[in-house]
């Protein structure tokens, strides 16, 4: 077990280089199972979730080499086996191997998904889509067995599910005929998966919209592809710069992906400048205005930035409202903020209000989920005194070298191994 020890308050200054997008790398790595040829990916974030998914590919017989954010995958030698169920259970994103393995091996077993702290994480959209495309689904107490000699082109309604949309895209790109998807998710990472597949010869129209048309091709060709910068990590660091009244250049902040966040920054009165399509300069900002956040599917306000924004709410004048519409368990971090002196009221599983500005004080806090963990780091950076943050392996799932990036910006932060007795 490890812990982060953070002493605040600090003002972040300098430049942060954002890593590749976790939620683009994961579906693109899963999609490499559709290839007989080698796939080379660059700008891949070296994070726990990527390593865990590579462990699943290795358990299937794929050959992977991952060094300095360059990942080479040879999936040509995959045997017709199921991924290691223990590895699959530990990683929600393993659901992304469902369609590629069904297409490749004509059958796949997937254990019931572990719920996690942000919500139940059902998979009905995934299963009903693949069933509609011709898969036989046998469910038992351990999970689902899917079998399909040949998938059929269909019309699928993806109900804006991100990984649900991604599974249908991966099921359709090698399925003869035309598959259409309505209510498709259009997040930057869904677009990146589409652009990766199109680069390899797939035929996908409507990328970036909620309606996709996919015409199956015979095979995908050998390619090298660069993963986009992480929309959520870049938003997280922009928010940290604002919260600490710092002066930070966020290198990898793709403004085209961040319209709703920038619109919130305008409303709050943040002092920022768009330096280039992928660089945002945050300047010292005082007197933040209170605000309302309602999380939505893309291009609305992203649920993954809901928690980090709450820190700005603790420092804004007046009462700010948070409405988390996507998940039912994503406000757990509020209790940790209260421990640090924030004035928060949680109305129900989806709504909370935070009144500011209130001074925060160092405390011993726990990161319940990936984005809540990053939020608590920001809280500790502006708090007076020392904070100790537990369960940081959860943060390592989605943020590469997070304490190193903050340290380069002047934060007083260090990672320590927890002595067993503590
Ligand atoms: C993806 O999860 C992301 N993960 C999540 O990021 C992100 O929070 C989420 O999309 C929403 O943007 C990856 O891309 C690997 P959904 P996903 O299917 O696909 C319900 C992070 O921190 N639903 O869009 O699992 C579901 O319960 C992670 O990086 C069904 O009802 O999310 C939820 O309420 C956390 N049935 C809503 O839809 C289904 O079959 C959105 O889920 C699938 C989903």
The CATH class of the largest domain? Alpha Beta
| Biggest sheet statistics | 4 strands, mixed
Terminus-to-terminus distance: 10 Å
Number of strands: 23
Describe the structure.
This protein is of the alpha+beta class and 422 residues long. The chain has two domains: 210 residues, UDP-n-acetylglucosamine1-carboxyvinyl-transferase, Chain; 205 residues, Enolpyruvate transferase domain (UDP-n-acetylglucosamine1-carboxyvinyl-transferase, Chain, Alpha-beta prism). The protein contains 14 helices and 23 strands. Strands 21-22-1-23 form a four-stranded mixed beta sheet, with helices on one face. The protein has a four-stranded mixed beta sheet with strand order 2-14-16-15. Strands 4-5-3-13 form a four-stranded mixed beta sheet, with helices on one face. A hairpin with a 5-residue loop joins strand 11 and strand 12. Helix 1 packs parallel to helix 2 and helix 4 packs parallel to helix 6. The longest helix is centred in the first third of the chain and has 13 residues. It is globular and about 60 Å long. 50% of the residues are buried. The model has no long low-confidence stretch (mean pLDDT 95). The site of ligand EPZ has 25 residues, from helix 1, helix 5, helix 6 and helix 12.
Reconstruct the topology from this structure.
Blueprint (H helix, E strand, L loop, with lengths): L1 E7 L4 E5 L4 H10 L6 E5 L5 H13 L2 E5 L2 E5 L10 H6 L7 H8 L1 E5 L12 H9 L3 E4 L3 E5 L7 E3 L4 H11 L5 E5 L5 H12 L3 E3 L5 E5 L7 E4 L4 H13 L3 E5 L7 H10 L3 E5 L2 E4 L9 E3 L11 H10 L2 E6 L9 H7 L3 E4 L4 E6 L7 E3 L3 H13 L2 E6 L2 H4 L5 H7 L3 E6 L5
Parallel strand pairs: 2-14, 3-13, 9-10, 17-18, 21-22
Antiparallel strand pairs: 1-22, 1-23, 3-5, 4-5, 6-8, 7-8, 10-12, 11-12, 14-16, 15-16, 18-20, 19-20
The chain binds ligand EPZ.
């Amino acid at each position: 077990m490890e812990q982060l020890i953070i002493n605040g308050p600090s003002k972040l200054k300098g430049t942060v280089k954002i890593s590749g997008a976790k939620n683009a790398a994961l579906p693109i790595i899963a999609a490499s199972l559709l290839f007989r040829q080698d796939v080379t990916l660059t700008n891949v974030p070296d994070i726990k979730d990527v390593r865990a998914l590579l462990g699943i590919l290795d358990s299937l017989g794929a050959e992977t080499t991952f060094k300095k954010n360059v990942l080479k995958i040879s999936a040509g030698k995959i045997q017709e086996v199921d991924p290691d169920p223990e590895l699959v259970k530990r990683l929600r994103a393993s659901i992304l191997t469902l369609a590629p393995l069904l297409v490749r091996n004509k059958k796949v077993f997937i254990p019931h998904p572990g719920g996690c702290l942000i919500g139940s994480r059902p998979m009905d959209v995934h299963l009903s889509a693949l069933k509609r495309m011709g898969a036989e689904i046998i469910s038992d107490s351990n999970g689902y067995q899917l079998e399909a000699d040949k998938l059929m082109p269909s019309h699928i309604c993806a109900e804006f599910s991100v990984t649900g949309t991604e599974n249908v895209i991966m099921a359709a790109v090698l399925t003869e005929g035309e598959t259409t998807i309505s209510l498709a998710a259009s997040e930057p990472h869904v677009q990146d998966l589409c652009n990766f597949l199109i680069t390899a010869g797939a035929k996908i129209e409507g990328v970036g919209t909620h309606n996709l048309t996919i015409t199956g091709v015979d095979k995908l060709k050998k390619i090298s592809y660069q993963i986009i910068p992480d929309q959520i990590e870049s938003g997280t660091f922009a928010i940290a710069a604002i919260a600490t009244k710092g002066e930070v250049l966020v290198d990898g902040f793709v403004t085209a992906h961040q319209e709703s966040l920038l619109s919130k920054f305008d409303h709050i009165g943040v002092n920022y400048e768009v330096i280039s399509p992928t660089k945002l300069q945050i300047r010292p900002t005082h007197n933040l205005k209170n605000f309302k956040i309602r999380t939505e599917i893309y291009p609305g306000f992203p649920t993954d930035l809901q928690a980090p924004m709450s820190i700005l709410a603790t420092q804004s004048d007046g009462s700010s409202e948070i409405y988390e519409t996507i998940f039912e368990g994503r406000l757990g971090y509020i209790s940790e903020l209260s421990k640090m002196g924030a004035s928060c009221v949680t109305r129900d599983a989806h709504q909370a209000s935070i009144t500011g500005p209130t001074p925060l004080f160092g405390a011993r806090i726990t990161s319940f989920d990936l984005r809540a963990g990053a939020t608590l780091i920001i809280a500790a950076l502006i708090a007076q005194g020392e904070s100790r943050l537990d369960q940081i392996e959860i943060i390592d799932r989605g943020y590469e070298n997070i304490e190193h990036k903050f340290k380069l910006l002047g934060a007083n932060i260090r990672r320590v191994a927890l002595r067993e007795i503590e």
